[in-house]
Amino acid sequence: MGRIRVAIAGVGNCASLLVQAVEAVKRGYDIPVGTASAMESMAGYRVEDIEFVAAFDTSREKAGRDLAEAIMAYPNITPKIADIGKLGVEVKPAPPMDGVAPHMVDRFRPVDKGLSLDEVVDELRSSKADVLINLLPVGSEEATRFYAQAALNAKTAFVNGIPVFIASDPHGEWPRKFEKAGVPVLGDDVKGQLGATILHRTLVRLMHMRGVRVEETYQLNIGGNTDFENMLMEERLASKRVSKTRAVTSILPYGRRLEEEGKVRIGPSDYVPFLGNTKIAYIYVKGLSFGGLPVTIEAKLTVDDKSMCAGVLADAIRVAKIALDRKVSGPVPSASAALFKHPPIQASSDEEAMEWLREFVEGKRKY
């Protein structure tokens, strides 16, 4: 089928693992590259067909360096899993905007001035990027819109990996822009391959399926990478909390009522530096069974946070290219429901969402 040419906005830990794993497979390393869809081939596209052609980052430690070097540069802490050599892709300086939280500016030293919108568009065009993936820190509202506009101008498919509502914009402004431009967009906020959200959804759905009325639930997450440090600022978490919460409560017909009653609390809880990229999720669900007697589930999940993200992105990138090939315009809700926490349309279950994704890949769904 050919290559899928990918540009990256935000060369952090998730980008590091994604780039390393894709390039390692190309070089014959025997490492798992199973994805959320468990589809080795999507309409003929395999993970090793992904080719990285452009990258943007605000860090002085990364801008101007080869992508293979930048993914290992400070403050990234993803371990080296393969010797991939240089990739011949220079990381371009990105405008900081709100991509770096105020409490992190002094330590992470962003560039003084990054590329303009027109320069980013030129880079996307000159690199012939098919897909631009947004991996900026949570809370990067202004910067995400900047890259979404760049994708529109360059006619590049846009995969929004963070909780800024572009594909699922409640006002419909961004979906209309992508439809008008004839450009596909997937999002929003990547759902981990086997992360806290998918586990939490499964537990809540199990209760609901077995007739247990959910009364209250929480999901408390801790981790030690820059994402969790960035999210120490509660004001940067508004969209994140909405995204993670709706991913769980959407399963229940009375989920919004639980939210309104304050019976749901989901999201990052603390930054523990020594955990590194390890994310620990504590999940609690309490319900009432037959006769109104209580039943409680408590679970603890420990995962590498970036592995969970990168595996799903490998699916999203391939879906975006399929959408481009088929000239799909605007959001791709069938695929987004399976791969993102806050898609334009939530499926009633993860099984249904995966069926939608397979139907899109097989050409049984138009979008």
What does this structure look like?
The structure is a single chain. The protein has 367 residues and is of the alpha/beta class. The protein folds into two domains: 4-191 and 307-361, 3-Layer(aba) Sandwich (Rossmann fold); 196-305, Dihydrodipicolinate Reductase, domain 2 (2-Layer Sandwich), CATH 3.30.360.10. It has 13 helices and eleven strands. The strands form two sheets. It has a seven-stranded parallel β-sheet with strand order 3-2-1-4-5-6-11, sandwiched between helices. It has a four-stranded mixed β-sheet with strand order 8-7-9-10. The longest helix is centred in the C-terminal third of the chain and has 21 residues, at 305-325. The model has no long low-confidence stretch (mean pLDDT 94).
Pattern of helices and strands? EHEHEHHEHEHEHEHHHEEEHEHH
Question: Roughly what percent helix?
Answer: 25-40%
Note the gap between the termini.
Answer: 20 Å
Tally of distinct domains: 2
Classify the secondary structure makeup into a structural class: alpha/beta
Structural descriptors:
367 residues, seven-stranded parallel sheet, four-stranded mixed sheet, 13 helices, 19% strand, globular
